Task: structure prediction
Amino acid sequence: MRVQLLKLAHARSGDKGDTANVGLIALKEEYYPLLVREVTSERVKHHFEGICRGRVERFELPNLHALNFLLHESLGGGGTLSLMTDAQGKTFSYALLRMWIDVSETEAGALGIER
Result:
């Protein structure tokens, strides 16, 4: 089954120069391994296709049940150089939560995830 990340996590985002920073935090500790498995740098890069022109780095924070992503070259040069509406990256967290991932019916049932 397909599940949108907003059912599994909440997120915060910000920026530094031309790099957006997005933290993805599991709503339940049990969801964290699923996020680690499914929300890879490659999938995030694909999700932000056309926005993120550079590489995507992922950092795992198991003690917080969170992942942190750096989306390089995604803000049109940054707040002082860009004509983008959101050159500070504040809405990137909401955009990431719109990403869909695949979860088996068995795993979804065991974790209490509903469609």
In short: Residues 19 and 72 are 4 Å apart (CA to CA). Strands lie at 2-4, 9-16, 19-26, 56-61, 66-71, 100-102. The chain has one domain: 2-109.
